[in-house]
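Q: My labmate handed me this sequence with no annotations at all. I'd like to see what the chain might look like in three dimensions before we decide whether it's worth expressing. Could you predict it?
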Amino acid sequence: MSKFFYLLGLVGLLLPGIGCAEVDTAVPSLQRLDLTQHWAGYFSLTVMVAAYIAAMFEDVTELRKSKPMLLAAALIWFAIVLTYQQQGNDLLAVTAFKANLQSYIELLLFIMVSMTYLNAMEDMRIFDALKVWLVSKHLSYRQLFWITGFMVFFISSVVNGLTAGLLMGAVVVAVGKNSPRFVSLACINIVIATNAGGSFSPLGGISTLFVWQHGVLSFFEFFKLFIPCLVNFLVPATVMHFTLPKDKPAIETADIKLPRGAKRIIFLFGVTISLAVGFDMTLHLPAAAGMMAGLSLLQFFYFYLTKSTANVAAANRLGLELFAGPDVHDISSPETGKGSFDVFEKVGRLEWDTLLFFYGAMMGIGGLGYIGYLDAISHVLYGQLSPSLANILIGLSSAFVDNGTLMFAVLTMHPDIPHGQWLLLTLTLGVGGSLLAIGSAPGIGLMGQAKGQYTFSSHMKWCPVILLGYFAAIGVHFLVNAQSF
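A: Here is what I predict for the chain of 485 residues:
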């Protein structure tokens, strides 16, 4: 990730945060200590700054960003608990730590199951088949521009933005070999559509998942943002449309055979998402509980595939040919893809460095919030400024700072604002990252995938048009969701 991203990430930590809502429900706020002028407060702030600086220079030092953040979180809470222990009430600080830890664990389990299913579908070559299907349609550049944009807009509502963006990016790179202008514009469109699509669904990204996980908005309330997010995508796409080449690309097609069980894994993923929503809405259990139930379904299905595939292979060796056809292909065969029927192998391929980085960031933010630093800044943001202006400014800052980090910081302070303002914050943090190529994971990923064709500067040229879409989406939100304010 960009060094600039992490440098401004530190600023983002200190701008939008406040006190810890989960802690306040378990511990009376009057018994909390104000450590902002205490050695523990200064120490914690210094440690957090040092951790972000170390993360900022990850590419130079080759030190993974999770390592300094994990150490920072441990040192911050060590200082807090030690100080409270000297006052004879360390149970208060321990309760605060556990509240933050619970939030992280629920997020971790949800993402773990989701990414495990995505890895399983990748091994089944489902995404490759979709890419080949699109390429084989022999569409014009303008048609591909809109189709890839709309597809990633909806796919990103259930699939993480980086995966969705890279999937569509592979399509535009494959068909745009002879048109760098098409690749550049299509990648910009994909970044905008991905971030917009991930903002109207609680499953679309870490920031929306945070809001849903904290119970601020219900599952279906997020869909009030569908029209504003659609406007955010359509405004710049419409302007870019007139600069696209009108001809059709000359491309070669290929054929991909899906291995046995591929379609059923897609179905099980849908069932898993339904379980997560159902557990949350009907049983009032964390969505992660439903996701873990869905993980068990994948494990049992893999057990079935392992046993039945072995039986098919044995039958074929005897010349019985009981299950002829492409459906008998094993996932681990060279012609159908990589991998095995092992769930733990899929779990092992998760981006653990990023997940552990988020642990350090979340626990560090929680610690600074419990110390009291974020309370003071909340009075400025949501006290002296109007909530709308504060949310718009925070959204703009997500062009530089990870929106998940920013959202957790705001949730930590839990400002007293109506649902319409929480929806506004979700919208601005989700689509604000589209303003710059480094503002979101899809943009960073596509710069590597379409190297030399989609660049920071090529994206920057369209920033005024993207900014127009940003404010258009906000205006539409105030119009169509006026009853939520």
